[in-house]
Write a structure and sequence with these properties.
single chain; alpha/beta; UDP-N-acetylmuramoyl-L-alanine:D-glutamate ligase; seven-stranded parallel beta sheet; binds ligand NPW; binds potassium ion
Amino acid sequence: MRRAHTVEAVRAAEAELMARLPEGALMQRAAAGLAVAGARMLGRVYGARVVLLVGGGDNGGDALYAGARLARRGAAVRAVAAGARIHPGGLAALRAAGGRTLAPGEAAAAEIAAADLIVDGLVGIGGRGGLREPHAGLAALANAAPGPVLAVDLPSGIDADTGEVAGAAITADATVCFGTGKPGLFVDPGAGHAGAVHLVDIGLGPELPAPRLECLQGADVAALLPHPARESDKYRRGVLGIAAGSDAYPGAAVLAVGGALRTGVGMVRYAGPSGVCSRVLDRWPEAVVSASDPGLRVAAWAVGPGRGTGEQSREELEEVLETDLPVLVDADAITLLAEDPRALQERSAPTLLTPHAGELARLLPGTDRGTVEERRLEHVERAAEEYGCTVLLKGSTTVVAQPGRPAAANLTGTPLLAAAGSGDVLSGMAGALLASGLRPREAALAAAHLHGLAARLARGGAPVSAGDLVEAVPRAVAEVSALADGSAPPADRAGRYRR
Ligand SMILES: NC(=O)C1=CN([C@@H]2O[C@H](COP(=O)(O)OP(=O)(O)OC[C@H]3O[C@@H](n4cnc5c(N)ncnc54)[C@H](OP(=O)(O)O)[C@@H]3O)[C@@H](O)[C@H]2O)[C@@H](O)CC1
Ligand SMILES: [K+]
């Protein structure tokens, strides 16, 4: 599990810890970890050209001390000072190790363009709003340079708490964060700037409160997945009812049923128009089909993909929500709920909504798709609070919120998932896990993890269709299940899952 804390929580923990340690000890721990990561990116340190972008705060101090360590190992280190005053101790250490400083300008631009490694120490958790000059210009030079960029604590220009990016920002190949993750490293648009995220333990752990954000890794998901016991039968493994698809969109039914069957469930009962029933049976003879009937004996329902927003769909949704079964509400059914949420308000059984940004905006009047995408965490949490249920917000970073629990972000997301029908597959997958007995938050997170992994595995990184995705789900389940012995995933695992 990767955890992330707010700036406020990090500051408080830092103060507690610093009170017990000699002055500067934390910065030395941070700089040591940073130098190790920089050396790893360089491969050969001796003779390498390293440029540090140094702002006026402690983030710049980390970069300077790390630069001094690299300089002592034979790297040619240049620090570009953004502003008149930079960390005095770090500056002295760099100079003592043979490093030099430069003001922003043509010579600095040439150094950045020729660097084997650029270290971004412009701003860290002390950054506020969009980058000012000369920071913004230096960030643009670093982004355009051929050398790799290593961000200190977080890429400068991204909001540590939310992942918002207001204007210019560093796009890093890797980020070394100290003590704990920051939410902005795992939630887009910030996550897209962070590259592979490495954590350096500086001893903050015992001082930290509950995380602001959690990110499940493969082993965490493996621990959640149901394992059929010897005495299992199809009813004990769980029966999922699927009310998806319509004569206009039969494919949504076929994909949702496929997603459920490939994830693993005792039985899928598909309910829908007879024409769609035959399409489902043609593709999935193991499904049991019938005309729409929310009275079917099932353990959970998945409702909405491709179903339409007509009167019949509305009545069906209401009937399903009246049951005391877990229900996943997606796509057209979310649009219906946004128009009239009463059936949800009266419900106490577990409910999982799986909107994309546009659908979430419909659930939260006064906002729009773009705003939701800019501030995903805030909006998914608002929806979870207002509707009193678990909400999975699909998109570039899939995030999950449940009242009373830390928000969670999925690490396996990939732009490959932006394909028609991919959400229908996810509905089936999360529905299957709900029917198997997982709670909505866990079902949502495990399904999102497997969904992203399946997209990556399906065609070796080449574009995938929703049908490819369905067929790759068993490989994703197998890969994750192989981690079920509780051992931590390989160190670079999270890195591999990042873009
Ligand atoms: N916490 C921990 O446990 C540990 C923390 N450590 C490190 O400390 C870092 C935090 O350091 P910090 O508090 O000095 O703040 P920091 O990120 O350097 O930024 C402040 C500077 O940026 C400037 N500035 C702000 N916004 C700006 C903008 N938009 N555009 C341009 N400039 C802007 C601001 O200028 P001002 O606005 O004040 O004029 C000021 O000069 C943290 O991320 C980690 O790396 C480790 O060493 C050890 C353990
Ligand atoms: K930084």
